Amino acid sequence: MKAWRIHEVGEPKEALQLMDVPDPEAGPGRLVVRVAAAPANFPDVLLCRGQYQLKPELPFTPGVELAGTVVAAGEGVTRFAVGDRIIGNPEFPFGGFAELAVVPEEDAYRAPASLDDAEASALSIGYQTSWFALHRRTQLRAGETLLVHAAAGGVGSAAVQLGKAAGATVIGVVGGAEKADYCRALGADVVVDRHREDFVDVVKDVTAGRGADVIYDPVGGDSYNRSTKCIAFEGRILVIGFAGGTIPQPALNHALIKNYSIIGLHWGLYRQYNRAAIEACHEELCRLADDGAIKPLISERLSLDDVADGVARLGDGHTVGRLVFQP
Fold first, then answer.
1. Structural domain total, the chain
2. Which residues form the Enoyl reductase (ER) domain (predicted)?
């Protein structure tokens, strides 16, 4: 099979090599999946650079989520069979940027019929992260105001749609006119181009000075620091990640004085501690997709040959919306 491999970490264009490798086998509890679609995610960039919290043994194929069809099932597999259409999170060294990947049965989920392969492939990490943030770590309520940073990104775009599905007023913060158009297409009520506007002023204007009830922050750095200037009384700041490269140091006295909560989310830990919660989340996401309330908006559908370039552009911040590779 053809697969992108990393033999030495570095920038994506240098680290990723497309080559022929032996087909994987289905070990105990494992599925071999013919990949129909695999999105680019920021963890793939970090995997190339050797900066991700998980550091697979070299060489390996990145690609942390996919949609595809089961072609082999290992001993002990009970939930899926050959021919089933699934989405899931592959197991290294056989990640999603290949013609075939290996997915542990516990990390596989049924693909909703309402979504095509590219759309379904983007339903796991970003949407589950945002669902857990908005509905488990906090409870976003209808009528509240949700501010989403990096609202054209993988997790941010999911947060925009899930916020609208929950009945919130959604303000999306993006960088650039193209990303602003994409964010509007997602359904955001208000879009802030941070290159041209101060989101703090916009939030205060939209909420008549009250501030945002929930702030979704996968960026960190100055985005977090300035978010504290427009958080509402008894508001909640969700700390999702630090794509901006700087980990903020919260002033806890400020949280005390303004009565707001700082809430962390590490979606991956639910895979370790609460698999049942992930299964329930996936079924809810399928229901929302089938009802038309959410739908991953794919901006680029690319071939397997385009992986190195696409992941590099994602890492450089030169992409708009979701990129999906289809072998």
1. 2
2. 14-325
Contacts of 314 (CB under 8 A, 6+ apart): 40, 41, 42, 44, 45, 323
- Domain identity same for 184 and 219: yes
pLDDT 10s digits, 64-92: 999 999 999 999 999 999 999 999 999 99
The distance in angstroms from the start CA to the end CA of the chain is: 11
Whether 150 and 234 map to the same domain: the answer is: yes
* Mean pLDDT calculated for residue range 168-182: 96
Q: Is the peptide bond before 112 cis (omega within 30 degrees of 0)?
A: no
Domain hosting 23: range is 2-123+296-326
CATH assignment at residue 172: 3.40.50.720
Mean pLDDT of the chain: 95
Q: Are residues 264 and 136 in the same domain?
A: yes
3-state secondary structure the chain: CEEEEECCCCCHHHHEEEEECCCCCCCCCEEEEEEEEEECCHHHHHHHHCCCCCCCCCCEECCCCEEEEEEEECCCCCCCCCCCEEEECCCCCECCCECEEEEEHHHEEECCCCCCHHHHHCCCHHHHHHHHHHHHHCCCCCCCEEEECCCCCHHHHHHHHHHHHCCCEEEEEECCHHHHHHHHHHCCCEEEECCCCCHHHHHHHHCCCCCEEEEEECCCHHHHHHHCCCEEEEEEEEECCCCCCCCCCCCHHHHHHHCCEEEECCCHHHHHHCHHHHHHHHHHHHHHHHCCCCCCCEEEEEEHHHHHHHHHHHHCCCCCCEEEEEC
Rounded Cα gap, residues 225 and 213, in angstroms: 16
Place of tokens 């994602």: 314
Q: Under a CB-based contact definition with an 8 Å cutoff, are residues 177 and 193 in contact?
A: yes
Shared domain for 145 and 235, answered yes or no, is yes
- Within-domain flag for 281: no
* CA 6 – CA 248 distance, rounded (Å): 31
- Give the chain's radius of gyration (CA, Å): 20
